[in-house]
Amino acid sequence: MKPNLIDAVALATSHRDRDELDRAVAHMLFEHVQPNCVKVYRVLGEEGRQRVQLRVLIDQAGIRDGDAPSDPALLPLINEKPHWHECALMSDAVHYLPEGSETERFDSVFPLLGNRGLIGLIEVEFSGQRAAIRPHDANLVHGVLRILRNHLSALDYGERDTLTGLLNRRTFETTFSKRRNAIATARPSDGSTKGTWLGVIDIDRFKTINDTFGHLFGDEVLLLVARLMFDTFRSTELIYRFGGEEFVVVVDGAEEDGAVIAFERFRLAVAAYRFPQVGQVTVSIGFTRVRPDDIPASTVGRADSALYYAKEHGRNASHCQDALVREGKLTAKAAEAAELELF
User: What is the CATH number of domain 5-159?
Assistant: First the structure.
């Protein structure tokens, strides 16, 4: 028996975990609209370079998670499919003829909007006697997505830093655990040594900036550094403000050399930028590979030991903890000391 729609909406919006919410929404629309298939996508990154990631698919065979590529750069750009692109530009539903379709049938894609604009897409696909979504079903989807937008706005309020809009420290442990579990279950078939890297970024002499120019300009520095992060790191990276002048970035699908390039590129971007009134600002960075058996404290502790090394050797530098240990410049005890200080 199909559940009551109001009960189904109430159940879906009881979830705080984004993955569980995606599954609940897909299941609800599949039950009430009765299409052949429902796909829930997330849209990652800033406008102009957004990528689309399939999160959940449900059809007659059941519900299952999408396959996330090991390299986020392999995700399709939103403009690679005309109906995705049109939906993003219009912020409205688009009804389209599927590629290769031999019948006059139309599928639909709906935008999922959040405080930061487009954050997802929901595709509803038909086959057999159903040629397209019925008008009252389309209205139902629009209504559900409006409710969902309000729910996501409430979640964002608790998960994001109010000044910069970055993810906050409270969300770090949950998202870190998901990344670590993905690492633990991954089985590269090509012998790849790509992995996930966590970097701790600290603005050099930030207290001096606040004391010299005032907290208003200090806040502007934080905002502009956050903007440079969005512009420099890939659209799929997770970026957190840990508090004060400290940030954490999680880089996926990179060799060690690639992680070096990613963090060094950001350091150089900050050093080259001219901040209003303040002038030049620099950052120090320490980063490390995330291991399958890591807990948040151990990974951040290792990265922080490399950050301290950068601070003690002139600042305005990025260092890989793994490389420093190999070179004998750091020991495991340094990471343990950083872990105790942080947590």
Answer: 3.30.450.40
